Amino acid sequence: MIIRRRRSVRSAALAAALLTVGFATVGVLPAQADPSPSAGVPSSTASAAPTEAGAPEAPKVDLVLDVSGSMGISDIDGKSRMAVAQRSIDDVIDALPPEAEFGIRTLGATYPVSDKTDGCKDTKVLYPVGRTDKVEAKTAVATLRPTGWTPIGLALRGAAQDLGSGQATRRVVLITDGEDDCAPPDPCDVARELAAQGVHLVVDTLGLAHDDKVRQQLLCIANATGGSYTDVRTQQQLTDRVKQLVTRSDTSYRATPANVTGTDQCATAPLLTPGVYADREKFSEHRVYRVPVHAGQELRASVSVTPDRAVALDYGVLLRATDAAGQELVRGTDAGSGRTDVASTGLRWSAADAPSGSPSGGSSASSPSGAGAGARTVCLVVSNSFAGQAGVQNDPGLPLELTVDVANASPAPAGPALGLGRGWIMLLVLTGAGLLTGLVWGWIARWRISVWREN
User: What's 132's domain CATH number?
Assistant: First the structure.
């Protein structure tokens, strides 16, 4: 009896070991790896985006701070709203990139609540937009005390003037705890007014008071300019959000794309090499660009369109690759409903994907002037379904950023024979493991029955 038990234990251990080896064999079967390490990753040529002569224009950020009397209320982390805002702004100033142009404008900082006539005109520059002396800027912020009224509409107009014009990203960050109590002008109307000008000016709003009226007004301001709204609950949240917005502007500065102007047909479209490009596209417009792709290469492209003014809901962005005759090769679409910071999409197309009847990629005759011998011209068509809200101007078009890369094409997947062979190997291993498992468990069952009968 004891001998049988020992044998059974040894047999069970052996069976378990065999099962482990069998499944381990399945686990180490060679997997089909992507032999192209660059697949899905832009080639090194894409990192060298073409730039215009001279240094790019630095980003500009104007922080508009509410210093009205209600900012003295202590309801955030046990501190007053003013103290929380001052501490967060100090942290943001410390983290500013050296090339950023940063400024601060106040509203309600001078005239007391008892003086509404002058208090509703009370908005001024605390620190001018430009390269920041951090000590001076922080000292200016430290002198602020909650004082007067909340003329948000006038402050937004003033901030737009502070930032001036230019091609770089211009961002207004509004920190307030209340709705405008000095209208007119209504801050939503001012935001739509700025958006209708068609300049790339974004207003991001941060609310320190959790009131439905305040929230609706701040959402209206942000939506009209393609910005964002944040309901602030803690000091850390305020600090992190403002830093994020400033960093976003700095990122745009470091990756300044080259300006290009697309056309309405492929024959006259600009010829692009790998890089990042900027253009403007009107509502529901089509913009066309050309890219030469050689045999054995793969085109990878993406496009982002920024709604920098009030647009209607239900919109989308479409990117298509066509041949010179207009036949579609591949497309990528993005559609949405509601407000987003950007709408984008992308596509990939390999010269090996061309149908057999299409012009050969190696035929220089099919390549337009400037495309290079042996290259096939692919036309990139950017379309959008944006529509402006009432009173919004169509000119200039929406900011568009196009990224183009041409890399070695990814090898085709393994043929049927190789795939079938690997499938048979795995099937045999799994069948063997299942058969072995059945035999072992059958033997154990018979042994248990025999032991039961003997007892």
Answer: 3.40.50.410
R_g (Cα) of the chain, nearest Å: 32
Tokens of 245: 């917005």
For residues 253 and 345, the answer to whether their CB atoms sit within 8 Å is: no
List pLDDT tens digits, range 67-95.
999 999 999 999 999 999 999 999 999 99
Q: 453 burial class (0-12, 13-18, 19+ CB within 10 angstroms)?
A: exposed
Dihedral-angle region of residue 431 (phi above 0 means left; psi in -120 to 50 means alpha; beta otherwise): alpha
Any idea which residue has 């901030």 for tokens?
A: 159
Note whether 238 and 300 are same-domain residues. Answer: no
Domain extent, residue 375, equals 268-408
Tell me the C-alpha distance between 9 and 2, whole Å: 11
DSSP-based three-state secondary structure for 154: helix
Whether this prediction's pTM lies above 0.70 is answered by no
Q: Which two tokens stand for residue 45?
A: 């040529």
What's the CA gap between 347 and 172, in Å, rounded?
33
Q: How many residues does the chain have?
A: 455
In a domain, 433, yes or no: no
- Beta-strand (E) ranges in 151-255? 170-176, 201-207, 229-231
Q: Which residue has the tokens 């008071």?
A: 209
Question: 234: left (phi > 0), else alpha (psi -120 to 50), else beta?
Answer: beta
**Whether residue 178 sits in one domain with residue 142:** yes
The Cβ-side half-sphere exposure at 252, using a 13 Å CA radius, reads: 23
Judgement on whether residues 150 and 194 belong to the same structural domain of the protein: yes
pLDDT tens figures, 316-348? 899 999 998 899 999 986 655 444 567 888 888
Residues 249 and 274 in one domain: no
- Cβ neighbours for 5, distance < 8 A, ≥ 6 positions apart: none
Dihedral (CA of 163, 169, 174, 180) sign:
positive
56, two tokens: 């790019």
Evaluate whether residue 55 is within a structural domain: no
Q: Residue 425 has which token pair?
A: 């190997």
Instruction: Output the CA–CA distances (angstroms, integers) from residue 27 to 13, 15, 30, 428, 435, in the order listed.
Output: 21, 18, 9, 14, 18
> For 295-426, where are the E strands, in sequence order?
297-305, 315-322, 328-336, 343-350, 375-384, 398-408
**SS3 state of residue 423:** helix
